[in-house]
């Protein structure tokens, strides 16, 4: 781990010291919000109403990029389609997608899908840090990595169970020392899909980086891995409001002299809402770059950062 942390530290230092070498390219993509289709089939219209012709169709769970704007006609959302004319969809056919802490157009470096218990093909993951995103049509899911060659260790990435839902959307961090591996699924009977993304991709890192200011917040639900955050030097009060009885928060430090590890590890069967707070010190002239990983939680949560000094 020490060698990896040094390599990551060097990578991020290069990004910050030489931004001209890796600055994100200009894009014509407008400000959009991701929505998910909630019906089996939905028509995309040429205009905001059923009196307009059909521009295309979308199917259940398909992702659509909707303009971040006030609708010109109530009840109709304008859909951005790259290389195509805009289209419209009735708002009752979609719902806002869960929080996504990476650029919506970032392509995965590896994808696997299946049903029930099984194993994937072999994937080669160079040394680095990756986010594992899983969508599971079930209320339970175990995902384990099994090393075929290289210096990675076998590990359980997900071990999730939520009786209150029939669909899991979860994310976690995977560190590769440079290896070939197979993913194995267990305790699941429904369909599942796994996507692996490189969180150290320079363009993605710069685009997704959130600079924490006094009073800033991050919110989502369930187990996930946030965007990279830059926490300035100083003493911070991190508070969490969690609509659940349990909550684990882990700081995954990529740069700077900050504590790497568990920030909160709480369980209280006598409450439905946890109110937590702790002090956290960020050191160094540029502070720290940190991913925040949540575990052992199903409900919605919000983190708030208050600068003490």
How does this model look, in words?
By secondary structure, the protein is mostly beta strands. It folds into 3 domains: 32-96, Roll (SH3 type barrels); 102-198, Jelly Rolls, CATH 2.60.120.380; 209-307, Jelly Rolls (Sandwich). Helices cover 9% and strands 52% of the residues. The chain contains 3 helices and 26 strands. The strands form 6 sheets. Strands 17, 19, 20, 22, 23 and 25 form a 6-stranded mixed sheet that branches. Strands 6-5-4-1-7 form a 5-stranded antiparallel sheet, with no helix packed on it. Strands 9, 10, 12, 13 and 15 form a 5-stranded antiparallel sheet that branches. It is globular and about 60 Å long. The two termini are 31 Å apart. The model is unreliable at 1-27 (pLDDT under 50).
Keywords:
SH3 type barrels; 5-stranded antiparallel β-sheet; Jelly Rolls; 309 residues; 6-stranded mixed β-sheet; 3 helices; mainly beta; disordered N terminus; 26 strands; 3 domains
Topology:
Elements: H1 2-17, H2 19-22, E1 32-37, E2 41-45, E3 54-59, E4 63-67, E5 76-80, E6 87-90, E7 94-96, E8 110-115, E9 118-119, E10 123-125, E11 128-136, E12 140-150, E13 155-161, E14 168-176, E15 179-186, E16 191-198, H3 202-208, E17 210-211, E18 217-221, E19 224-225, E20 229-231, E21 234-242, E22 246-255, E23 261-267, E24 274-282, E25 288-295, E26 300-307
Parallel strand pairs: 17-20
Antiparallel strand pairs: 1-4, 1-7, 2-3, 4-5, 5-6, 8-16, 9-15, 10-15, 11-14, 11-16, 12-13, 12-15, 18-26, 19-25, 20-25, 21-24, 21-26, 22-23, 22-25
């Amino acid at each position: 781990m020490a060698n990896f942390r040094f390599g990551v530290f060097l990578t991020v230092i290069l990004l910050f010291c030489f931004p001209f070498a890796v600055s994100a390219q200009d894009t014509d993509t407008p400000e959009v919000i991701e929505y998910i289709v909630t019906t089996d089939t939905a028509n995309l219209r040429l205009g905001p109403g059923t009196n307009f012709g059909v521009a295309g169709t979308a199917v259940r769970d398909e992702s659509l990029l909707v303009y971040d704007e006030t609708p010109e006609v109530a009840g109709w959302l304008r859909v951005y389609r790259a290389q195509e004319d805009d289209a419209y969809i009735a708002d009752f056919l979609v719902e806002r997608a869960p929080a996504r802490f990476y650029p919506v157009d970032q392509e995965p470096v590896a994808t696997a899908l299946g049903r029930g218990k099984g194993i994937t093909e072999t994937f080669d993951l160079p040394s680095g840090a990756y986010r594992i995103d899983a969508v599971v049509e079930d209320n339970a899911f175990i995902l384990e990595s099994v090393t075929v060659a290289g210096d990675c260790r076998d590990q359980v990435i997900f071990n999730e169970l939520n009786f209150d839902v029939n669909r899991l959307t979860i994310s976690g961090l995977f560190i590769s020392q440079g290896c070939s591996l197979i993913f194995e699924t267990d305790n699941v009977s429904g369909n599942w899909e796994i996507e692996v993304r490189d969180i150290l991709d320079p363009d993605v890192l710069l685009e997704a980086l959130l600079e924490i200011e006094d009073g800033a917040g991050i919110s989502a639900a369930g187990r996930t891995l946030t965007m990279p955050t830059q926490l300035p030097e100083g003493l911070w009060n991190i508070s969490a409001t969690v609509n659940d009885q349990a909550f684990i928060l882990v700081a995954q430090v990529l740069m700077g002299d900050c504590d790497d590890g568990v920030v909160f590890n709480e369980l209280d069967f006598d409450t439905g809402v946890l109110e937590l707070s702790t002090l956290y010190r960020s050191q160094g002239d540029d502070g720290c770059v940190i991913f925040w990983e949540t575990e052992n939680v199903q409900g919605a949560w919000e983190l708030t950062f208050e600068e003490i000094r």
